[in-house]
Protein 1
Amino acid sequence: MTRADAEALWGVEAVGAALAAHPDPMTSQLVDAVRVRAADLTDAEFSSWALALPWPRFAAVVRLVAGVTRAELLTMGAVHE
């Protein structure tokens, strides 16, 4: 996913604020929750689900959807393409 995907879900300002925030740590449980909901919910439902999360958790979801988490992991060598 990309920042454009995240901005389509939550808007440019919300994504910018979330990316500047201190997010919750990324966990496999959070990744699984995002994966399941992204597959099962409409974009509007997924967006609403994420917005209902506490701010640090929402910020982590935004980082994941925007591709920031993956980019950071690639930079650290933790993910192989």
Protein 2
Amino acid sequence: MNDELPVPLQNEASLDARFAQRPHAYARLRQIADMMDQAIVQGCTADQAEARAVEQIRHLGRDLY
């Protein structure tokens, strides 16, 4: 199994560039990443932190449409 991230193509925009057009979504994704880190610090397992993040990303997805 290959766990490495794909190498971006030369003409492919970075996530920062892509989310520059969506500052609310970008800020929310940063909050979700911070929430995951904090959950681990508070003793949650990686699975629990992931479940929290997935829930928050679903909320974000609903808000985008």
Protein 3
Amino acid sequence: MTSSTLNLKNKLNTVRRETSVLFQDSQLKEFCSFKEFPIYMGSDGEEYSQDLFVDMKWGYCEKSGLVQLMELIPLDLLYSKHHNPGVTGKTWEDHHFQLSNLIKKKGFNNVLEIGGATGTLFNHFIKSNDRFFWNVLEPSGVCKITDDRISVVIDYFENYNPNNVSYDVIVHSHVLEHVYDPITFLNKSWDLLDEGGYQYISIPNMKEWLEMGHTNTLMFEHTYYIDEKVLEYLLNKTGFVIEDKVVNHHSIMVRSKKVNKKINPEDYDFEYSKKLFERYYNNLIDDVKKIVEQVGNDKVYLFGAHIFAQIYLNLGLNEDNIISILDNNTEKQGRRLYGTNLIINSPKVLGDCVDPTVIIRAGSYTNEIVCGIMKINKDTIFY
């Protein structure tokens, strides 16, 4: 049995995104899709027969040209299996260090962190002797840090209704691109902030990611294109101005300040996002065809218990050619890549292999991962 056995795939009823995330009066027009795609991009301990698949349909806003997903997965189902993003590797360590330094520039007293996951960002403040309150709002309940300055609420921000509470700082890192209705989300942030309060936001550098062909740029969790220009548009429209910014290959981080005057920006031409996505989509199909030709009947390893591997398999890589999935996250190892029958192993299994071949397309993490594998087996061949 392989993940391409269509009659075994369980279909799911999705929630259709009727209008654009920017304009309620603008319809979406479909322009490309990935058929029968697994809804969850991580590892799983259950049987393959329980996995769910949906056509990943991409459209664009007829008014602005902004790319966005047309069929949405119910949030409680999409995030029912926590996959610990942002906790493994130097790239994420550097990201949290930069974001924490941006926050420390202006100071803070009562912080709301939305989507705090395992508490990785708070770890950059825990050694301080300063007295402050740090509130983590995280639906997965995986944040287990013990410190009398931190409290954890297990909930989605959309459902969060604190009584007579406001914050001088709101932080969310790689969260906004997951939100189905970013304008409502940012309006709620505005309501919860003190006058003149700050909202710190980190988002993926999607423009660069798409240009580099990163498969984790847009998928079931990242449901619309966002970059510096789109973020500024959203913030101005909901009563924020950007005061400071850090941009690198991985992320865009901003400090935005709450202001009383909400701006209705006139520049909302995001047609370039559609062109970026179309180029990415066509290049990806071509790349997979080349990889399939190179692999032939050989047995190879595929890196990434994530969409990194799933998208190759979805576009034609034969699961029967894959020895196993490789991933550095120890919590995934020994489990199965969702949507496949492939078991996940540590890259350490390459140690005794003779000239092993690894297919890898891991976005901005690729160089870091390749360096790690070369330390295990310097004779590894990479596609």
